[in-house]
Design a protein that fits this description.
With 164 residues, the protein is an all-alpha fold. It has nine helices and no strands. Helix 1 (12-23) crosses helix 4 and helix 5 packs across helix 6. The longest helix is centred in the middle third of the chain and has 18 residues, at 94-111.
Length: 164
């Protein structure tokens, strides 16, 4: 049986030091020995060097081991809109929320003078992520399936026919 691997959170300071050593020409094996890390860990850090440099420039302290990003103001606007609709007991569905998100995106593109290369797609995956991120599991959702009374009536009649 293989031993379980242990998750080690490295600070940005350590990651930048590994990246600097590699840039100076030090070999991966030497870096692995110096930091007592797995070779795959060091290789991944070296591979993601540009992202690490960018992250190191964004944070106040290099001792951070986790970087969090703030939500976009558009997502805050959308979250506020959804909560407002829920307070008014307005029917909500994925289609309505995604359509509203797309219209908010168009407004933001105009406000911030973004070009057409900046795109946004309100997909099913985006919606699931938005719902989780905004903690909207409590929002009442209504959809086509719930409002299709014709299908329910047909099913009910078919069930009566099968079970007298």
């Amino acid at each position: 049986m293989l031993p379980q691997s242990v998750l080690i959170k490295l600070s940005l300071e350590v990651k930048t030091e590994i990246f600097k050593r590699h840039d100076k020409g030090e070999g991966t094996c030497a870096i692995v020995s110096a930091f007592h890390l797995a070779q795959s860990t060091v290789s991944t850090i070296i591979k993601k060097g540009e992202a690490i440099k960018a992250a190191a420039g964004e944070v106040a302290t290099l001792s951070a081991s986790r970087i969090t990003r703030h939500r976009e103001p558009a997502m805050e606007e959308l979250h506020t809109w959804v909560e407002d609709q829920n307070r008014r007991k307005a029917p909500m569905s994925q289609t309505i929320i995604c359509t509203t998100a797309l219209s908010l995106w168009e407004e933001i593109k105009v406000r911030q003078n973004l070009d057409d290369s900046e795109t946004f797609k309100a997909s099913h995956g985006w919606f699931d992520h938005f719902k989780r991120q905004a903690s909207l599991h409590h929002v009442r959702m209504y959809g086509e399936v719930m409002s299709d009374t014709v299908v329910v009536a047909v099913f009910h009649n078919e069930l009566k026919r099968i079970i007298p």
